[in-house]
Sequence to fold (332 residues):
Amino acid sequence: MNEKLLEVRDLKTHFFTPDGVVKAVDGVSFILNKKEVLGIVGETGSGKSVTALSILNLIPQPFGRIVGGRIMFDGVDIAGLGQKQIQKYRGNRISMVFQDPAASLNPVYTVGNQIMESIMIHQKIDKRSARKKAMRLLDMVGIPEPQRRLNSYPHQFSGGMRQRVMIAMALANSPSILIADEPTTALDVTIQAQILELMVDVMNKTGSSIILITHDLGVVAKYADKVMVMYGGKPVEFSDIDKIFYEPLHPYTNGLMGSIARLDSKKKDRLTTIDGSPPSLIDLPPGCIFYPRCKYRMEGCARSYPRFKEVKPGHHVACHRHAEFLKEEADG
Ligand code: SF4
Fold:
């Protein structure tokens, strides 16, 4: 049976800019179970990274803040915690791997010192034990000669090796959840698969769960158990991986599926694009925000935003088409 680890309910994170309120995340809900990989996909600006940053209260200040919703972890609503209280969770119970390892590591400290610092902040152990643990972590993520490499600086590693160091650092305190925000985007294609395999392998060994944020549907198809598709700061579809890939319900998800090459598609199938561009998140209209790009739009879609609801067991979608479908089914 699935054991719930994290529950995000109606999360809203807005940015108060001189040009208006940017509703970067507006009503996101999902559940992450133990030992599960949840993929969050969507175009740039869909709110996937801000969702991740909100979980750890890392929203850029002073403009951004969580204005609504709950993030339940271990019986505590961590959305309501201040910077001091969230430290107990950040880098400890929940940790994060960012897109660019070069920007995340401090160039003036050795990688050993940086991993040890993360260990000593959260665990009451001396420097010698922390060093031993750091060495074991480097070994676990596949860094050769870990004892020697502890004394190296980030610039002495390749991009792929730096990302391995970031993963070692993220795992230093045996987190229950690892959030990986586009962890392979800055890496060479040949290294990407190695890093993703490593993360999943480590997850299997440690029993942690992963939230994998990406715009790459191929990555999601290979590694995720469940997927949440986001558009314009809102979730538009959520389900397990097979349903999303073989029975997508939302027109946006359909469009995404049409834009990737698949081994199971027929030769004559051409890749398609989604016309138009994502909406500005300031002053959104009241109706469905996918309306201007949707080839299935109906009367009424522009008037009210469709509720995000479960239309089949475990399959949630926000689209009036499926509300109609349900109504027809109920009417017989
Ligand atoms: Fe398209 Fe209407 Fe569904 Fe929006 S609600 S995705 S416009 S059919």
The first strand starts at residue 4 and ends at 17. The mean pLDDT is 88. Residues 189-206 form the longest helix (18 residues). The chain is about 35% helix and 25% strand.
